Task: structure prediction
Amino acid sequence: MKDYIEQRALGLAEHICRTSCTVRDAAKVFSVSKSTVHKDVTERLRLIDPELFARVGEVLAENLKERHLRGGMATKEKYLKKRQR
Result:
């Protein structure tokens, strides 16, 4: 694996652990696709740093549990904005 890919995977993982952000948010910060973030933190990171991989897994699992709540809030905000027009 190339050095820059390892560095990106480590940077993404550290950012996700530090901020508890979603894959989508991390992709925006690092200017890469969601697929790249997901591949980096679920496949490549396991080989690079298993301990960090486990911590990222916990954050991603928590985000998955909360996903339906974020979707509901986004829908609520959408309709509130439509009503204000």
